[in-house]
Design brief:
4 strands, Rossmann fold, alpha/beta
Amino acid sequence: MSDQDAWDARYRSSKAFWSGDPNPQLVAEISSLKPGRALDAGCREGADAVWLAERGWQVTALDISSVALEHARDVEICDDVARRIDWQHADLTTQAPAKASYDVAAVGLNG
């Protein structure tokens, strides 16, 4: 079983595997910053990406699990916020994110 298969199986086990709340450390560190471009590596079901986009950030949100990304895309958000998020399927253990300039990088550590 590949890492993607394992994560997909984990996310299939529940419609909302995580709380849906953004990471409190991210909120504490980013709240006072002017919005720019953010990379959310290991975005899981998208709570951090949505929180950033709601505050005006342009977000590239990556995850190894296509099921987690489906869950993230299913979260009800307004069109303006949705346009600020680029959901991407990626295995960061084998491929680096596309070269781009980011003002903030958030890393979700699954465990």
